[in-house]
Amino acid sequence: MRWFFLILAIAVVATVYALGPRGEKFSDPPFELFPDMDHQYRVNYQKPSDFFEDGQASREPVAGTVPLGFTFPHEGNNDDLSTPLDFSRGDSYADTGLFGDFYGSGYPETLKVDEEFLARGEQRYQITCTPCHGESGNGVGVVSKYWAIPPTANLIDARVSAMPEGQIFWTITHGKGLMGPYNGVLSVNDRWAVVAYVKALQAAAGN
Ligand code: HEC
Fold first, then answer.
1. Any atom of ligand 1 within 6 Å of the Cβ of 178
2. pLDDT of 69
3. What count of other Cβ atoms lies within 10 Å of the Cβ of residue 75?
4. Structure confidence at residue 147 as a pLDDT band (50, 70, 90)
5. Span 144-166, mean pLDDT?
6. Where exactly are the structural domains of the chain?
7. What's the CATH fold of domain 93-204?
8. How far is the CA of 65 from the centre of ligand 1 (A)?
């Protein structure tokens, strides 16, 4: 019996060794013992497909959804959104948060920072930022329950409160450390609205 297991083990190792390696130069495609997910069904642009009922591979956007990173051909065609959906623009202060190499203070002149703007910022903040930074901005979002180290930043402490608006805009746009960029999720104007809301949270916390 001992020999049986030994021979079985050698046979298994030999089979895996013979069939498993990839990346060698073969003239024939190698036999794949472990294909992982290398080959998957996919559709080609502008090609027919019998997978969908209408026979087309290319799909229309799902009704009522907004594709990420997409600028509408004409702005303001979405009545329920107070700011135009514009995700990346030029290199002015309004688009970068920078004056030359420095973070700028204040809001771009093109934006009216009023109650409606703040309300928009609050709504976007609650959707985008609360999971990590918490509703009050104190850095204790739901994520902190599961992912305590390294902690997310406390946005209402003196350090972040001292940051100029442009720096917070820049952080939202490009991310920092473990925080990813949110420029594909928040339009340029929405990012400023979130900045205004973060500043309001800081003021509410007395900073
Ligand atoms: C997935 C979790 C996550 C989300 C969502 C998130 N952040 Fe962060 N954020 C972090 C982490 C982690 C840090 C600390 C980064 C570091 O210092 O390395 C951070 C840091 C920051 C800082 C401080 C940057 C600095 O220079 O110290 C600001 C400001 C900030 N976030 C704003 C936001 C805003 C506004 C949103 C929503 C648009 C947001 N974050 C969404 C995880 C997140």
1. yes
2. 66
3. 13
4. low
5. 87
6. 1-67, 93-204
7. Cytochrome Bc1 Complex; Chain D, domain 2 (1.10.760)
8. 26
